[in-house]
C-alpha cells in the first residue's frame, strides 16, 4: 500500500489530434499526460495513494492550504487544455487505479462525453453574484411606531424590534425579487443557466447578503453583450459582481448510471 | 476555433491565483463531470464538501457554524 499509485483525472476533451501540452504540472507535482480513445482525450497525472487515498484525504481536505493548492492546480490544468479544444472538467479529486480504467471510461461513456462536449463547444461560463447592500437598518427610537401609547419601556423596545424585523423582512423579499429578476433576464439570454447555492458571508468575505450566485453559459462571441445586459440590470441597493469567462464547469455535470449527489441532470 | 475567442486579456484576469477560492470551489465541487464506479476515490464518495468548507470557515473566521454548501443548484437548458 505504501507506494501505490493512482491516475488522477482532470478533464475530458474532444480529441483534435493536437500535440499534448508539455510542461503542464498536475497535483502533487506529477506531469500531466494524455490518454486518447474513441475521439476523446483524457488529461491525467499519476498521484501517490499515500496522498490521494481515502484516509489521507480526510485529513488533507481539512487543510486549507492543501485544498487551495489542489483546487488551483486542477483548475490550471483545465484552463490550459480548454484553450485548444472543447473541454469537460471532471469534478475535483477523481482518482482511478490506473490508466486502463480511464481508457475504459472513455470507451464506456463516449456518447455522454460527446454530448456534453457538443453542448459546451465554443461557449463559456460567466458567474454573476448579486449582493443586497446592508439593508433594513433598525428603526430609530424617534420613528418607532406606537410611541405615546407604550409606557412600559420593555414593551416599547419589543415593538421597535418587531418593526425593525418587519423592515428587514421586507428588504429581504425585495432583494430576493430583484435577484430573481436578474436571473430571469440573464437566463433568457444564456444558452443555459444554473443557480449555485449562495455563499456564506464568511466565505465570500463580504458583509452584504448574497441573493444570487448564478452561472450562465454564453456563446463565445456574446460575452460583451452579456456584460452589457448585466450592467443594464444594476440598480441602487444591489451589487452585481461578474466573474469569468470560466471553462463551463457548471454545465458539464453528468453522472453515469451509478450517479453522483447532484448528477441527475 | 471558438475556444480562442475568449481573448487573452480576459484569460489573464482569470489567472488561478486571482480567483477567489470560494468561487473556484463552487465550480470544482458542484460542477464538472461526476464519475463513479471503478474509482479509487471520488469526491462524491466522502462528504468532502462539508469537510472542506469546514476548513475554509475555520480559517476565514473562527466560530459560527455554516449551513450554506455549494452543492446542488438548478440547472436549466434551453431546448436546442
TrEMBL record, chain A:
Pfam families: GvpL_GvpF. Keywords: Gas vesicle. Residues 135-154 are annotated as: Disordered. One of its GO terms (biological process) is gas vesicle organization. InterPro entries: GvpL/GvpF. It is found in: Gas vesicle. The keyword Mitochondrion does not apply. Belongs to the gas vesicle GvpF/GvpL family. This is Gas vesicle protein. It comes from Sinosporangium siamense. The lineage of its organism: Bacteria, Bacillati, Actinomycetota, Actinomycetes, Streptosporangiales.
UniProtKB/TrEMBL annotation, chain B:
GO terms for cellular component: gas vesicle; vesicle membrane. Coiled coil: none annotated. One of its GO terms (molecular function) is structural molecule activity. Pfam families: Gas_vesicle (PF00741). It is found in: Gas vesicle. Keywords: Gas vesicle. Belongs to the gas vesicle GvpA family. This is Gas vesicle protein. The lineage of its organism: Bacteria, Bacillati, Actinomycetota, Actinomycetes, Streptosporangiales.
Amino acid at each position: 500500500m505504501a507506494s501505490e499509485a493512482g491516475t488522477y483525472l482532470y478533464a475530458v476533451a474532444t480529441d483534435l489530434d493536437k500535440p499534448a501540452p508539455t510542461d503542464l504540472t498536475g497535483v502533487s507535482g506529477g506531469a500531466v499526460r494524455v490518454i486518447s480513445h474513441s475521439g476523446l482525450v483524457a488529461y491525467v497525472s499519476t498521484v501517490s495513494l499515500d496522498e490521494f487515498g481515502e484516509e489521507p484525504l480526510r485529513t488533507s481536505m481539512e487543510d486549507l492550504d492543501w485544498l487551495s493548492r489542489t483546487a488551483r492546480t486542477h483548475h490550471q490544468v483545465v484552463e490550459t487544455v480548454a484553450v485548444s479544444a472543447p473541454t469537460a472538467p471532471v469534478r475535483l479529486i477523481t482518482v482511478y487505479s490506473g490508466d486502463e480504467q480511464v481508457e475504459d471510461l472513455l470507451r464506456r461513456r463516449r456518447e455522454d462525453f460527446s454530448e456534453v462536449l457538443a453542448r459546451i463547444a465554443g461557449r463559456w461560463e460567466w458567474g454573476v453574484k448579486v449582493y443586497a447592500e446592508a439593508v433594513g437598518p433598525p428603526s430609530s427610537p424617534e420613528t418607532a411606531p406606537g410611541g405615546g401609547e407604550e409606557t412600559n419601556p420593555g414593551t416599547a423596545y419589543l415593538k421597535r424590534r418587531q418593526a425593525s424585523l418587519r423592515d428587514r423582512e421586507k428588504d429581504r423579499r425585495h432583494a430576493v425579487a430583484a435577484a430573481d429578476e436578474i436571473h430571469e433576464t440573464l437566463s433568457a439570454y444564456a444558452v443555459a443557466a444554473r443557480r449555485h447555492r449562495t455563499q456564506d458571508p464568511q466565505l465570500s468575505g463580504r458583509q452584504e447578503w448574497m441573493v444570487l450566485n448564478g452561472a450562465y453559459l454564453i456563446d463565445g462571441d456574446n460575452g460583451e453583450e452579456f456584460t452589457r445586459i448585466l450592467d443594464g440590470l444594476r440598480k441602487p441597493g444591489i451589487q452585481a459582481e461578474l466573474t469569468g469567462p470560466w471553462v463551463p464547469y457548471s454545465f458539464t455535470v453528468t453522472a453515469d448510471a451509478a450517479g453522483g449527489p447532484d448528477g441527475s441532470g | 476555433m471558438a475556444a480562442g475567442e475568449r481573448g487573452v486579456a480576459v484569460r489573464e484576469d482569470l489567472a488561478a491565483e486571482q480567483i477567489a477560492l470560494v468561487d473556484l470551489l463552487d465550480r470544482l465541487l458542484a460542477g464538472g463531470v461526476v464519475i463513479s464506479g471503478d474509482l479509487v476515490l471520488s469526491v462524491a464518495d466522502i462528504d468532502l464538501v462539508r469537510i472542506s468548507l469546514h476548513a475554509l470557515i475555520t480559517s476565514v473566521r473562527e466560530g459560527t457554524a455554516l449551513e450554506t454548501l455549494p452543492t446542488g443548484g438548478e440547472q436549466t437548458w434551453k431546448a436546442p
